[in-house]
Design brief:
With 433 residues, this protein is mostly helical. The chain contains 20 helices and six strands. Helix content is 62%, strand content 4%. It has a two-stranded antiparallel ribbon. A hairpin with a 5-residue loop joins strand 5 and strand 6. The radius of gyration is 22 Å and the shape is globular. The model has no long low-confidence stretch (mean pLDDT 94). Bound molecules: NADPH dihydro-nicotinamide-adenine-dinucleotide phosphate (NDP) and ligand LWLCTGZJ. This is Delta(14)-sterol reductase ERG24.
């Protein structure tokens, strides 16, 4: 496909409340990941002592003292985390995989991506399985014991990666994201300036999106189950459900690796601090919150609760995967005879929009499936504490906001065709609402 000349228009509208919102995100979100972990202990989530410290100005100053901040760093944990990243990069290089094409960029080109995420995940799971068989669960306790140190190192790495991609985005010939070229350093750094930063054929955004966070999430969940086993001598059913559901979600995302190529993160958003921190720290260390909670405060489930939780997971997953696969297959080849059952509308932009099946029910029906699954992951924690429900609350906000951002993008792309589409598919996320 011949390249068109690169045109990088200036971004004229801010999202996330512009530079002020970007600065707030970059300071409060790392603080929040610490608070959510430091504040959830065997004696309660949140612990009374944390609330007292945060509400008392003198104790608050002490809380953020240099001594306390230094104690967040841990050399052994940092070496382990960097070793983990190097292992994942080597796995990407060394494990064979098919090269698949991404969607067409606005310069007319299509990039190629190596698809070996599933194999890399299997290798990681084999290494963990063999370690448990040979040495038992104890080596995994390192992760629980050095949790804060690992998290601190991940935060530093996420900032360094974001600084690197921001700097290289100024090299000549780079295709910038339409939303990340405002000229404001703080905003562009946070939202992501370059669309597809690469080192040779190593695509940094694609790698970060599906490797360190997703793999880290699964490893930390297994480590939390090991911690529970260490404390109780057995693993509760609630813990088994949480790590199975979330493990399934992670393995499923790498099994369907090419489907990520049609998500908003890859097609539209630049790669900056938000996706770097979002994947390397937020996803890896915050998404295992329910497993960490259950390791500290085990909960026992009734049969009725188990049936409800299993049903929510099955319904949510069916919608999520069904919708995502349908759109991905359609975007890859709308003329595929297997997709003959789909009705679609043509648009002046050249792209077609599905108007039947999952995509005829609501414009982001896939978000609904994902959110239903989120409930199945939190309910095993019971109702004693609010902390494990952080995920369903945060995720609702993220998905509603994401829906607004995607509508904005589609309105710009499809213009009056988008209004026509909205008249056919009337609902946003929940059919009938
Ligand atoms: N667990 C987590 O923390 C998170 C999970 N997710 C999940 O990631 C998945 C992907 O999300 P996201 O990328 O936001 O959104 P979508 O997968 O819904 O992708 C949106 C894009 O799809 C295309 N599209 C929209 N409607 C149609 C249609 N009717 N027919 C064909 N194409 C259409 C448009 O792009 P175009 O027309 O330009 O091709 C649109 O910009 C979701 O399932 C979401 O739940 C997302 C965020 C966080
Ligand atoms: C608060 C903050 C910094 C938010 C960043 C948001 C990120 C955590 C999420 C943005 C989009 C994501 C996706 C997934 C994980 C969370 C982030 C990175 C995803 C990789 C999860 C697995 C799915 O199967 C998926 C591949 C569809 C999905 C893609 C979007």
């Amino acid at each position: 496909m011949p390249s068109k000349a690169i045109h990088n228009p200036k971004t004229t509208e801010y999202e996330f409340l512009g530079p002020i919102g970007a600065s707030l995100m970059m300071t409060t979100l790392p603080t929040l990941v610490y608070l959510l972990h430091l504040g959830c202990q065997p004696e309660g989530c949140p612990t009374v002592s944390l609330i007292e410290q945060l509400l008392n100005p003198q104790q608050l100053v002490q809380f953020f003292s240099a001594e306390n901040i230094v104690s967040l760093f841990d050399l052994q944990a940092s070496i382990a985390f960097l070793g983990y990243l190097i292992y994942l990069i080597l796995a990407w290089y060394l494990i064979p995989g098919r090269w698949v094409e991404g969607t067409q960029l606005r310069n007319g080109r299509k990039l190629k991506y190596k698809e070996n995420g599933f194999r890399s995940m299997l290798l990681t799971l084999c290494i963990i399985g063999c370690t448990i068989l040979i040495k038992g669960h104890e080596p995994l306790l390192f992760i629980f014991d050095h949790f804060i140190g690992l998290m601190s190192c991940s935060i530093i790495v996420s900032f360094l990666v974001a600084i690197y991609v921001y700097l290289i985005s100024f090299q000549e010939g780079k295709l910038l994201a339409l939303g990340g070229n405002s000229g404001n350093i703080i905003y562009d750094f946070m939202i992501g300036r370059e669309l597809n930063p690469r080192i040779g054929n190593f695509d940094i955004k694609y790698f970060v999106e599906l490797r360190p966070g997703i793999t880290g999430w699964i490893i930390i969940n297994i480590a939390m189950a090991a911690k529970q086993y260490h404390e109780l001598g057995y693993i509760t059913l609630g813990m088994i459900l949480v790590i199975t559901f979330q493990g399934w979600y992670c393995i499923d995302s790498v099994y369907n690796e090419p489907a990520v190529l049609t998500t908003m993160d890859i097609t539209t958003d630049g790669f900056g601090w938000m996706l770097s921190f979002g994947n390397i720290t937020w996803l890896a260390f915050l998404y295992p919150l329910q497993a960490r909670y259950l390791a500290l405060r085990p909960n026992h489930l009734s049969w009725m609760e188990i049936v409800i939780i299993l049903s929510l997971q099955a319904i949510g997953y069916g919608i999520f995967r069904g919708a995502n696969n349908e759109k991905n297959a359609f975007r890859n080849n709308a003329n595929d005879p297997k997709l003959k059952y789909l009705k679609y509308m043509t648009t002046e932009s050249g792209s077609k929009l599905i108007i039947s099946s999952w995509w005829g029910k609501a414009r982001h029906i896939n978000y609904l499936g994902d959110w239903i699954m989120a409930w199945a992951w939190c309910l095993p924690c019971g109702f004693d504490d609010i902390f494990p429900y952080f995920y369903v609350i945060y995720f609702a906000v993220l998905l509603v906001h994401r829906e607004l951002r995607d509508e904005e993008k589609c309105k710009k792309k499809y213009k009056k065709d988008w209004d026509r589409y909205c008249n056919i598919v009337r609902y946003k996320i929940i059919p009938g609402k």
